Hints:
This protein is α+β, with helices and mostly antiparallel strands.
Amino acid sequence: MKCKLVDVFTNTRLTGNGLTIFYDFDELTAAQMQALTQEMRQFESIFLTAVDGKYAARIFTVEEELDFAGHPLIGLAYHLHEAFGAAPAHQWSVELNHTSVLLTSSVTEGAFTATMTQGRPDFIKTLSPEEASVLYAALNLGAAHRAGQAAEAISTGLPYIILPVTHGLEDIEFKVANLEPLLEKHGAKFLYVLDINSVEGRTWDNCGKVEDVATGSAAGPVAAYLHKHALTQSNDFIIRQGRFLGRPSEIAVSLECDANGISKINVSGNVVKVADMHLV
């Protein structure tokens, strides 16, 4: 079995969000994919099947399979470009469990960049101040941390609650054993705490055991949130994440708009290879 280690949303090895790409294997069950992801001890792994120019992928965290995720797809574009690309730039269509995703890849002056199109955002729910208070309290955030804007559940493939703060990302501490019951009632899967002043964020698994370094699936909802609340003056900006894990990351976002608002969100990042591996 072959796999590739890459770092996503960075130009520097051993920073950004690490990813294992499994791409040369015999048939694997979901349980085996789950076990391999746990063995690699990264936030997510991606498993690629390539047949006759068609590409399908499955994505796993250490706890479960996901129908969509950002940094594994950005990282996968690196492998597709390296393994199947013949030009400086390419487009790739990748089938996931319930949807297909368009990726682009390019190499310029030795730097690799991938872009994922996330489409039009789905604004699921605006939380009331009382509903948001429960989430702030669950993360040890008080009234002084809270921004004036409402928390919102937004999805571009994976639903997040965007919880805005004005400062104090370093003050976050889990006060509940599991966020999942608090999020499900609002139609969300995960929680993303966003400092609206620095455009920097943090997110975790719902038990608070593993913090994600850089979250491409959250970048779309974050961008939609910033645009809706007029918190950015440009349709092109950078979201920062990973500082608290010593792996600073930058996620580039570009918005396309029409008369109905945001029509498309493009999420981009650099990728660097760390290792090619052969598992016995």
